[in-house]
Amino acid sequence: MSDRNQAVHDRLAREYSAGFVTEIETETLPPGLDEDVVRAISAKKDEPSWMTEWRLEALRRWRTMSTPNWAHVSFDPIDFEAISYFSAPRNKPKSLDEVDPELLRTYDKLGIPLHEREALAGVERPQIAVDAVFDSVSIATTFKDRLRDAGVIFCSIAEAMREHPELVRKYLGSVVPVSDNFYAALNSAVFSDGSFVYVPKHTRCPMELSTYFRINAENTGQFERTLIVADEGSYVSYLE
Questions:
Q1: Could you say which of 51, 56, 105, 217 would form a disulfide bridge with 47 (CB–CB 3.0 to 4.6 Å)?
Q2: In degrees, to the nearest 5, what angle opens at C-alpha 224 toward C-alphas 154 and 84?
Q3: DSSP character at residue 235
Q4: What is the crossing angle of helices 49-63 and 182-190, to 10°?
Q5: Distance of alpha carbon 161 from alpha carbon 196, whole angstroms
Q6: How many CB atoms lie within 10 A of CB 138?
Q7: DSSP string covering 56-89, please?
Q8: Beta strand pairing call for 227-230 and 195-199
Q9: Measuring CA to CA, which residue among 175, 170, 218, 215 is closest to residue 193?
Q10: Is the pTM of this model over 0.85?
Q11: Is the separation of the CB atoms in 143 and 203 below 8 Å?
Q12: CA 113 remoteness from chain centre
């Protein structure tokens, strides 16, 4: 066996360090996809009526589309009726201080601390704002206040729909429309959370932004949606 193949073999033989499960109480929708499920997701996110209708129209379009066939890709057919489209921790924190300690420990274990630590004097350590999405919901977004002071909006897309509906409505689906493809339509119907970024004209975002998506519940689909609006002459660095 070549050194390269041996290295690949050794890597595959290792235990997946992030493959642990966090034992918490969850709220999960039954498997299946229809208009009632879409309405339930929208209601759980406390979305405006226009967003609910946007989702329902996406579902109707998706029903008319066929699963794409890609060259050189082989996988078993997906049973979309066997998936749960929403799962979230039962405890719904309103701030970082209210996040379940078990979830904080989970992200610490992953090397993604959700504590806003001030930079130490004389220590060059770049600060990164993180939106942590756990199953179907964002559980915390760090450094929101500091970014807001710079004119930058960084929050979950669910929060953006409530707090900045005019921006979401203007830009959602403007790059990849609902009708673009099978999976774009599906995502548009059932996405539950993700990140929203808005950087005003001629503004440089003062820190790196990142979203970490983690699936914890079994037999669920995590359909995230990220919407980044970088206005004219602005700069932002974002990593998922």
A1: 51
A2: 140
A3: B
A4: 150
A5: 9
A6: 24
A7: HHHHHHHHT------TT---PPP-TTSSB--EEE
A8: parallel
A9: 215
A10: yes
A11: no
A12: 17
**Rg of the chain in Å (alpha carbons):** 20
Alpha carbons 73 and 14: distance in angstroms, whole number: 26
Amino acid identity at 166: E
Instruction: List pLDDT tens digits, range 99-132.
Output: 889 998 999 998 887 877 644 444 456 789 999 9
Residue with the two structure tokens 């066997």: 82
Contact 131, 156 (CB under 8 A): yes
Give counts: helices (H), strands (E), the chain: 8, 9
Structure tokens at 152: 């930058």
Q: Which helix (H) or strand (E) holds 132?
A: strand 128-134
The predicted-structure confidence for 5-51, as pLDDT tens digits, reads as follows 777 777 777 877 888 888 999 999 999 999 999 999 999 999 999 99
